[in-house]
Amino acid sequence: MTSFRERNDRSKGRGGARTGPESPSRERRAAAGAEARDEPRGPRPPRRKEEPDAWVWGWHAVVAALANPRRTPARLLVTPDKLRQIEGRLGTHGAQLRPEPFDAPDIARMLPAGAAHQGVALRAPPPEPVDLDDLAEGGGLLVMLDQITDPQNIGAVFRSAAAFGARGLILQDRNAPQLGGVIAKASAGAVDALPHARVVNLSRALEALAEAGWRAVGLDGSALDLLADVLDARPTVLVFGSEGEGLRRLVAEHCDALARIPMPGGFESLNVSAAAAVALYEAARAQGAAGRRNA
């Protein structure tokens, strides 16, 4: 009679741990695993991050971020065809930041869906705000945004403000997003070229600016005065409200004038970023004309 031990030994020989030439020993398997772990590999495709504000993408946005001393970049991903171009733009960050070559799809995995990275992405926290007092020094133009939260609109306003020579932007601390990758891309890098301040209370900020000699002009589609009629050469803060609600009551009450953009075509209103571009052009022209008259 076959014993239990004999049957058990036979079953191991048939279906258990085989020791023939077709099955490597435990020692050989362990050595093979260690060798595979030690084998050099190319760069791993990065995984998608859950912090979109930590990344900047797009050629102009990344170049501007690299040129901004208020940025502290940590990682730079580039496609091979962009590597030589970006190396010439590193500036002061060249010593501590080495570009990492990746294919375009691998870079895209790090970014929000649909991000047009143009072969470059920079991991860096948003630029730090400056004090309101710093923006108030001197004259010119400032832009204040009252509860505008759409990143595309904020980025476009930054771009127009930089184009027409504004000194900076003022955002509310609680009701404005961080200046992350979407805003940086929409601004074409203007978030790094133009300083911004964050304040707790916009009405109090307007009071402080008034004491420093600034005049606030709020954009309101229902205002009686036309924008060109209220602008002059004095230091001016252009104040824009959200598209749905417009300027809040207390913010509007702290403006020295409310004005509208004339629209002879009969259309009711403009997108806030388009309205900002028109208003900044008019304000820059008014200040420039006054300067030429006084020259």
Order of helices and strands: HHEHEHEHEHEHEHHEHEEHEHEH
Contiguous helical run count: 13
Strand content: 15-25%
| CATH-defined architecture of the largest domain | 3-Layer(aba) Sandwich
Q: Domains counted in the coordinates: how many? A: 2
Net shape: elongated
> How many strand units?
11
Distance between the termini: 120 Å
Q: What top-tier CATH class of the largest domain fits best?
A: Alpha Beta
Average pLDDT level? 82
Helix content: 25-40%
Kindly identify the CATH topology of the largest domain. Answer: Alpha/beta knot
* Strand arrangement, major sheet: 7-6-5-10-8-11-9
> How would you classify the helix and strand content by structural class?
alpha/beta
CATH H level, superfamily name of the largest domain: SPOUT methyltransferase, trefoil knot domain
Rg to the nearest angstrom? 30 Å
Please describe what this structure looks like:
The chain has about 300 residues and is an alpha/beta fold. Helix 7 runs parallel beside helix 13. The protein folds into two domains: about 70 residues, 2-Layer Sandwich (60s Ribosomal Protein L30, Chain: A); about 160 residues, SPOUT methyltransferase, trefoil knot domain (Alpha/beta knot, 3-Layer(aba) Sandwich), CATH 3.40.1280.10. The protein is built from 13 helices and eleven strands.
Give short descriptive properties of this protein.
295 residues, alpha/beta, disordered N terminus, disordered C terminus, four-stranded mixed beta sheet, Alpha/beta knot, seven-stranded parallel beta sheet, 60s Ribosomal Protein L30, Chain: A
